[in-house]
Design brief:
- The protein is elongated.
- It contains eight helices and six strands.
- The chain has a two-stranded antiparallel sheet with strand order 1-2. Strands 3-4 form a two-stranded antiparallel ribbon. The protein has a two-stranded antiparallel ribbon with strand order 5-6.
- The N terminus and C terminus are likely disordered.
- The protein is mainly alpha-helical and 298 residues long.
Length: 298
């Protein structure tokens, strides 16, 4: 029996329609240490803009607000905090952009591979007609990456990559750290405006008063916009992780065919086993422990 959710999937469910003879041999496997990078003009432009906006915030915070401050302790504490969070945000962005999100081998729907699965009567395999790959359950095809991605949540142009099984941790950290530096920048802008109103505007900044106001207003607008956007995205991602349902699965309302786990276990599947301070580090690859691999055959 086929339900509407199955009919809407981009797969062919019967082995007779797989047509392995139409698939070219898969390309040679890339080395494990080969960097993953999507050559998409829009994504590359958005990634560059993201870094430039962070550098702009860095410039305003350091040269407009902290260096002119009369309190050395205030400048050191806030400078270290903001620069630390900004560094973690950019590192998370880089890892999310250059980490394989969980791409299924392209072009593996060959006769030899299908025979190696040793299918039993009644077993079904999934084939993507777009990239000619036999793919595991919960994998979806990305038209930008031109690959099927395991546990794909969505394609994000701001990181020029899909958010999937292998890089969701870095994407969540990126949204969290961007939200934190945006909030921190807004708080410092508020304090700096109060300081400038109390003191002479010519003494509260090394720039002219009009330039100082323009720079602060632009930073305020940028911080407010990114605080709202990344906070919503962070909350959405955490909810998706806790419910173990990707954004695409929620959008398509796909039937749940995987084992239900606790919210804490779902968090450990993404961030690693067991809980540690490494959850907050973009340099620590998540250890998935004994997480069950996705199978090709159902």
């Amino acid at each position: 029996m086929k339900d509407p959710a199955h009919r809407c999937r981009d797969i062919e469910r019967q082995a007779g329609y797989l047509q392995p003879e139409h698939c070219a041999p898969p390309p040679p496997r890339t080395l494990p240490d080969t960097m993953w990078f999507i050559r998409d003009g829009c994504g590359i432009a958005c990634s560059i803009i993201t870094w430039l906006l962070v550098f702009y915030a860095e410039f305003v915070v350091v040269f407009v607000m902290l260096l002119p401050s009369k309190s050395l302790a205030y400048s050191l504490v806030n400078g270290a905090l903001f620069n630390g969070l900004a560094f973690l945000a950019l590192a998370s962005h880089f890892r999310a952009m250059c980490t394989d999100p969980g791409a299924v081998p392209k072009g593996n729907a060959t006769k030899e591979f299908i025979e190696s699965l040793q299918l039993k009567p009644g077993q079904v395999v999934y084939k993507c007609p777009k990239c000619c790959s036999i793919k595991p359950d919960r994998a979806h095809h990305c038209s930008v990456c031109k690959r099927c991605i395991r546990k794909m949540d969505h394609h994000c142009p701001w990181v020029n990559n899909c958010v999937g099984e292998n890089n969701q941790k870095y994407f969540v950290l990126f949204t969290m750290y961007i939200a934190l530096i945006s909030l921190h920048a807004l708080i410092m802008v508020a304090f700096h405006f109060m300081f400038c109103f109390e003191e002479d505007w010519t003494k509260c900044s090394t720039f002219s008063p009009p330039a100082t106001v323009i720079l602060l207003i632009l930073l305020c607008f940028e911080g407010l916009l990114f605080l709202i956007f990344t906070s919503v995205m962070f909350g959405t991602q955490v909810h998706s992780i806790c419910t173990d349902e990707t954004g695409i699965e929620q959008l398509k309302k796909e039937e749940r065919r995987w084992a239900k786990k606790t919210k804490w276990m779902n968090m450990k599947v993404v961030f690693g086993h067991p809980f540690s301070i490494a959850w907050l580090s973009p340099f620590a690859a998540p250890d998935h422990g004994k997480a069950d691999p996705y199978q090709y055959v159902v």
